Sequence to fold (377 residues):
Amino acid sequence: MRICYRAVAAAFLATFCLALGAAWRPAEALPRFALREGLSCSGCHVNPTGGGLRNSYGIGSYARQTLARESDRTQSIRYDGDVAQGVRIGADMRFQYLKEQADGGSSGYHAMAASIYLGFEPIRDVVFYLRYDPENSGTEGFAILQNLWGPFYIKGGAFLPDYGIRLDDHTAYVRGGDLGGIAGVLPKGLLFEPNYRDAGIELGYERSWYRLTLAQFNGNRGFAPVSAEKATVYRGEIRPTLLGIRTQLGYSYYKHTGATMKGYFGGFSRGRLTILGELDSADHLPSVDADHNVQAYAVEAVLETFRGVHLYTRFDTWDPDTVVPAETFKKLIVGLEIFPFPYVEIRPQMRFHMEPNSAANPNIKNDLILIQLHLWL
Fold:
């Protein structure tokens, strides 16, 4: 990792000043994540485990009155995702510009995702869900039976297993990792690369301050209808409020054939500050040497400085072999998350990659700067 810190600091300062100069007004401390809201993932999303298609609250008052700045443009928006009775559509588009330190400062554009969502509720508490991403050839399709025996639900189809914190950045080592997209960095991370899905069934139980899920999958990403051994996934979390501080604490477990993942996650939110973290250990993952035990860690902090402007930082580590000392990869992300209008997000970031600087993994020039545009409905 070798980078011109003076140039990086100047770029970050310029971006920060532009953000502050865009006339955002100070606002009350409003929640950004489900943790800040004191809600579960289903508070904003149709899927009980979060992500994808948003419900009326997620696309309505939360997107317009919590994330974006107040303006005449905000007040005039009436779109709530419903296109017909029982039919809801949504979308996520991510596009970014990157400038890498490697190869003499190469740069380029990257179309990350172009997901389209469809939700159909023909009768009460029965939901059919479809996600299609032509950019990445990704699909999810499942049905949900809600409010069975009280707060129970059953979900069946092809979907992302409920494991850990569902960060929206797949490069986090607790998700899928860098996937070899950075110069000199081998693919690393847990199983959940972009568009990961598996075919199976999930049972969930949720109350106001806790949620439990238990699922069984084929364990082969759903590419074959049958498999010799099934994958088992379970996850539990509690969300108590202690002394005015909203907290979260949970545990995840995944097992398929010889592969096992165990993870702890948690966080807290008070006022304008939210901090979340996850620690996972795994062995016999198909993406790494079967004899190695690996460990992944991520912690992120978000500070709402003004309405529509958030300071963001995240620190990741990846240890490809816990037996071998001093072989840990590290990554630091510093940037802004700017919401100038409803359904628009701009993310300028600096990313610093730190290799172990050993003979096997020498320290190289591979830091980068990116600007990401995220549009959603």
